[in-house]
Design a protein that fits this description.
This protein has eight helices and eight strands; from the N terminus they run βαβαβαβαββαβαβαα. It is an alpha/beta fold. It has a single domain, classed as Alpha-Beta Barrel (TIM Barrel).
């Protein structure tokens, strides 16, 4: 059964606290914090996501799954490390210099936080294989990052399958997380591709029954 990391990207500020409580009651496994800087992606929500993450860290025991869609990874990750998130994931496309990628990986791990690398739909799995022994998670974007409510891109399922096979063949203990367009209609194909953790936003947060939506995704 996959874990569910609920994206709070579209949660309305005036209802945020009650929504977070209700999502925890619905038994989500993580709160997915989509941090965007207006550079790596068009939208800038740095202040809002920091506020949401801080609020959740004070009122909830559910772990934070921080997804940095930013160019200046080091600066932004340093803002989240004090919140003791369960995991911080950054984009391979934002760095590319191999020594710097390893520095970021080690910095996050040295703070007792799990580390993940995310790749966009156009980036091949091959690009990150050398880093896999040193990280805890790969986040496969199944949509173009930066916008909520998009449809899952079917070609990305092949990347999940490729990554799953590679981790099994090389005895790597890595979680595979998928993010984008995951709902009742697409969840089965994503799970069959080999995902361990599913990011879902609007399908859950726009539903009338959070618990039922989470159960639908998990397959309870």
């Amino acid at each position: 059964m996959p874990e569910i990391s609920v994206s709070i990207l579209t949660v309305e500020k005036e209802n945020a606290v009650s929504t977070f409580y209700n999502l925890e009651t619905a038994k989500v496994d993580y709160f997915h914090i989509d941090v965007m800087d207006g550079k790596f992606v068009e939208k800038n929500n740095l202040e809002l996501m920091k506020e949401y993450a801080l609020t959740i860290s004070h009122i909830s025991n559910v772990g934070l799954d921080v997804h940095l869609m930013v160019e200046n990874v080091e600066e932004i990750m340093d803002e989240y490390i004090p919140l003791e998130p369960k995991i911080i994931t950054f984009h391979y496309e934002a760095i590319k210099e191999k020594p710097r990628i390893m520095e970021i990986i080690n910095d996050i791990k040295n703070n007792g936080i799990q580390v993940g690398i995310s790749i966009c739909p156009e980036t091949p799995v091959e690009s990150i294989k050398e880093f896999l022994p040193y990280i805890h998670q790969v986040l496969i974007m199944t949509v173009v990052p930066g916008k909520g409510g998009q449809k899952l891109m079917p070609d990305t399922l092949e990347k999940i399958k490729e990554l799953k096979k590679y981790t099994l063949d090389n005895d790597l203990e890595i979680d595979i997380e998928a993010d984008g367009g995951i709902n009742y209609d697409t969840v089965q194909s994503v799970k069959e591709a080999g995902c361990d953790r599913l990011v879902s936003g609007s399908y859950i947060t726009n539903s009338e029954n959070f618990s039922e939506s989470v159960k639908n995704l998990k397959g309870d």
